[in-house]
Amino acid sequence: MSSSAPKLCVADVSMAFKTPTGAFHALAPVTLSIPQGRFVSLIGPSGCGKSTIFNIIAGLLEPTGGRVLIDGVDATGTIGRVGYMLQKDLLLPWRTVLDNVILGMEIQHVPLRASRERALPLLHRYGLAGFEYLYPSALSGGMRQRAALLRTLLFDTDVILLDEPFGALDAQTKLKMQEWLMQLWSDFSKTVLFVTHDVEEAIYLSDEVHVMGTRPGRIIATIPVPLARPRIRHSVLSGEFLAIKERCLELLHLDPKGPEAVNEAA
């Protein structure tokens, strides 16, 4: 396989649902091509199909048309090829933080002792030292999301889907979690597809932002984020950052039946 081939490719994927009044077209054909190790965000209005795309990539929905390829191999309808984290942390209340974090490895039949030995250093490194043997009810919202993200990473897939993981957090905690996620992403070199309603969050975290429209859901623009990494928050709030934000907001306020998809890098 060529090193230039995308890690994740969503190829002309569309989705229609049957309703009593006829077919509802949730997604027009959508194409995404994401290289290994990139951080890419989807933004768009509610109902534009962001979560539908995630569910198709994760194999939870069979698309009406198109394919999902991982490393060039057809993964359409295949569960377990990507890590998937929702806004809700979904930690199991009867398991300790440590035993929540190793859940993915257990599912993959990694022995319990080996799973714990692998997870413990990561809990210590990424801000959960001292919380390993507590239960989720003892954790703050930010701590719970840290545990859920580590659990997703330890599922040990190259592609990670994050669906508004910080949407329920307060503003200060959210900023801290963004910084924490950037460190995690840098250390693990995962390919990340991220959904958010927060335009600044999308720009700050991403190499590229895809703006979606609705009726039906589709990508109306692809905007590169050429800001240097590592990113320090006060330094990225520059004229270039603000120009990208203004362009994203302009696109989000377009008529939902507005222009065809455009690539802003072209």
**Number of helices, where a helix is a run of at least 4 consecutive DSSP H or I residues:** 9
Apparent shape = globular
Structural class assignment: alpha/beta
Helical proportion, percent range: 25-40%
Strand order of the largest sheet: 6-7-8-3-9-10-11
User: Unreliable segments (pLDDT under 50, ≥5 consecutive)?
Assistant: none
> What percent strand?
15-25%
Ends distance? 27 Å
Tell me how many strands there are: 11
Order of helices and strands: EEEHEEEHHHHEHEHEEHHE
> Can you summarize the main beta sheet?
7 strands, mixed
Give the overall pLDDT as a whole number: 89
Rg, rounded, reads 19 Å
Descriptive overview:
The protein has 266 residues and is α/β, with parallel strands linked by helices. It has 9 helices and 11 strands. Strand 4 and strand 5 form a beta hairpin. Helix 5 runs parallel beside helix 6 and helix 7 (199-205) packs across helix 9. The radius of gyration is 19 Å and the shape is globular.
Question: Outline of this structure?
Answer:
This protein is of the alpha/beta class and 266 residues long. The chain has helices at 50-57, 97-101, 103-107, 112-125, 141-153, 171-188, 199-205, 233-236, 239-252; strands at residues 8-19, 22-34, 39-43, 65-70, 73-74, 83-85, 159-163, 191-195, 208-213, 218-224, 262-263. The strands form 2 sheets. A 7-stranded mixed β-sheet has the order 6-7-8-3-9-10-11, with helices on both faces.
